[in-house]
Known about the structure:
By secondary structure, the chain is α+β, with helices and mostly antiparallel strands. It has a domain at 2-43. The protein has one helix at residues 21-35; strands at residues 2-5, 12-14, 40-43. The chain has a 3-stranded antiparallel beta sheet, with helices on one face. The longest helix has 15 residues, at 21-35. The protein starts with a strand and ends in an 18-residue tail after the last strand.
Amino acid sequence: MTTAYCEVCDWAEGTGDGTSRSDLNRAMIDHHVETGHAPIETIEADASRDEPAQPTVELDR
């Protein structure tokens, strides 16, 4: 899940439950245009994964 929030006011928006990444991008732009505030974006790890992601390609060393 990706979340965006504003340090100046209480605005926050995130992906999930019908909200796509494109929707989040549009919401961040709209918030900036309406308020002049610059939202901060955070990308949260996938909570459904029990183990860290492993590389799919081995590099020759």
